[in-house]
Amino acid sequence: MKADTLLKIRDKVKKQYNARFHEVAKYPEWSANIIPVPKKDGKVRMCDDYRDLNKATPKVNFPLPHIDTLADNTVGHSLFSFIDGFSIYNQIKMCPEDMEKTTFVTLWGTFCYKVMPFGLKNGGATYQRVMVTLFHDMMHKEKEVYVDDMIAKSKTEEEHLANLSKLFQRLRKFQLKHNPAKCTFGVTSGKLLGFVVSRRGIKIDPYKIKAIQELPLPQT
Fold first, then answer.
1. Are the beta carbons of 58 and 128 closer than 8 angstroms?
2. Which pLDDT band, with edges at 50, 70 and 90, does 198 fall under?
3. What's the pLDDT score for residue 147?
4. Which of 34, 67, 87, 92 has the most crowded CB, counting CB atoms within 10 A?
5. What pLDDT score was predicted for residue 165?
6. Which long-range CB contacts under 8 A does 44-49 form with residues at least 24 apart?
7. DSSP labels for 74-99?
8. How far, in Å, CA of 101 to CA of 141, rounded?
């Protein structure tokens, strides 16, 4: 691993430790290596290799929503707000008896997570179950949820403000955090899981098919 990558990983580990995302693991029976994944902005995403742990983990059969159904449910609405979760898995606490299983090894120590890390087999299903539990009374009416993607939908401005107020109250109640840089409020159309949704209907996100559209024509 290159020196600059090591420094970025060290800073990430330190930041997470100071945020109390993990603690020192003393006598772990499980351990995972770190896999650095470069990001477009020059930063490094710190991924943990939980392949062995995932092989030994029973699968949680909590269903994810059908993407086409979510898109269809937005038809007929005039205003949308798209809300993106912030480090969503890290907002769920690990059971104390399972923390040791998430142990990862670094040059600066061996740590285990106090919150749910990325890379676990049942991470997506667990978060979806949490969101359904907390927002089931609002789903398929004024909002839709797909793991960390939330969309509030309304037919009028007054209705949209009321829906957002109710949503924010629920988020504050359960101390759920979202990324304002990736949120969009009160728009007439927007991207949702590979589609562009609006009052007029649904269409494919042009960015998703850009590579196909730009393929050169056959020469023979």
1. no
2. confident
3. 86
4. 34
5. 95
6. 44/5, 44/8, 44/9, 44/12, 46/9, 46/12, 46/13, 47/118, 47/119, 48/102, 48/104, 48/117, 48/118, 48/119, 49/119
7. TTT-SEEEEEEBSSGGGGSBPPGGGG
8. 39
